[in-house]
Design goal:
Blueprint: H1 15-32, H2 40-63
Length: 64
C-alpha cells in the first residue's frame, strides 16, 4: 500500500467561467491594439484559442 495521498483531479471551469476568461483576454487584446474598431471578432477568436489551449494544458498536466 502506498502512503501517498491521491493526486487531486484538476477541475475544468464552468462554461460561464470560460466565457469570462475569454472575454477578459479579448478585452486585453483590444486594449493592447488601442481598441481599433473592426477587429473584435479576431480578438475574440484569438482569445478563445489562447484560453482553451491553457485550460487543455492545465487539465492534461493535472491528469498525468
Amino acid at each position: 500500500m502506498s502512503a501517498e495521498p491521491p493526486t487531486p483531479a484538476v477541475l475544468m471551469p464552468s462554461a460561464a467561467e470560460i466565457y469570462e476568461l475569454i472575454a477578459q483576454a479579448a478585452y486585453y487584446r483590444a486594449e493592447k491594439r488601442g481598441f481599433t474598431p473592426g477587429l473584435e471578432a479576431d480578438d475574440w477568436l484569438q482569445a478563445e484559442t489562447e484560453v482553451m489551449e491553457r485550460l487543455r494544458a492545465r487539465h492534461t498536466a493535472g491528469g498525468a
